[in-house]
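Exercise: predict the structure of this protein bound to adenosine-5'-triphosphate.
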Amino acid sequence: MSILTVTMNPSVDIAYQLSTFKLDDVNRVSNVNKSAGGKGLNVTRVLKEIDEDLTATGLVGGDLGNYIKSQLDQGAIHHDFYQIKGNTRNCIAILHEGLQTEILESGPTISDVEGEAFKNHFESLLKDAEVVSISGSTPSGLATDYYVELIMIANAKEVPVVLDTSGESLRQVLLSGHKPKVIKPNVDELSQLLGRELDKDLNLLKEALQDSLFNGVEWVIVSLGSEGAFAKHNDLYYKVDIPTIDIVNPVGSGDSTVAGIVSGITRNYDDVALLKHANVLGMLNAQEEITGHVNLNHYEALFNKIQVRGV
Ligand code: ATP
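Solution:
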């Protein structure tokens, strides 16, 4: 049995390093880094690095889709994507003067036939799955309740789902009768969902997680960046306090946290161990330049500095 990660709108991410970014002029770049991206693939890479057994699935198409598969092959990551007619997208990050300017293609439009076919493909992969992790937005062409349908299929086979998405896709799931086991919004996503501005105030967070929108979702884990996390597990509430660390690149830390949650579930960790495991991985990602990469040499030292307290 293994973990199934789902990335419906992957990308080939390009990072350009420029000392200065000149608008309305030619920018020449020699330092280029291309990688298989998309939130679900970040989760996938971290799961591989912590030695979890997994299969990556989702939709890929065209040359960039092939590039993604070849990158996964190179990393010895098992994958079984559904092939679409459209072309997988590029996302570009320009790193300049300490800033990050991003150009994100929206990606291919998925046809109804492809959407239906993926559901069958997903269902067939569930037979070997112990936990499913679904990350990122739904691609254009698919209905905003598409994740509701995937969760319905997984729940019917009693395979729990960890869902990390936002906006309308997340709202549709929470309003539906088909609940994931875990969601992991950050504070901005939680604020957007509830339609009110939330910060890191623990009383406000606790009150927010009592909203009926979360009924039936076993775990709500709100990641708080440098402040750790606030979590609800059924009727128990926890604050995860983390030490101050030097940050290199926090992009993808949320995805790394999701990898920790998924792995904690498969390892049957108790609440405290699961929350520490998830936060250590988020922090380790923030300490690396590469998104979706962790250096496990620092795992234990960080783990021992994290405090989980009931609130
Ligand atoms: P992303 O969308 O970039 O993946 P996110 O907003 O979903 O990120 P964050 O809350 O920023 O997720 O980070 C997830 C976890 O990573 C945090 O709960 C924390 O454990 C760790 N982390 C992130 N940023 C920092 C930081 N600056 N210092 C220490 N730990 C951090």
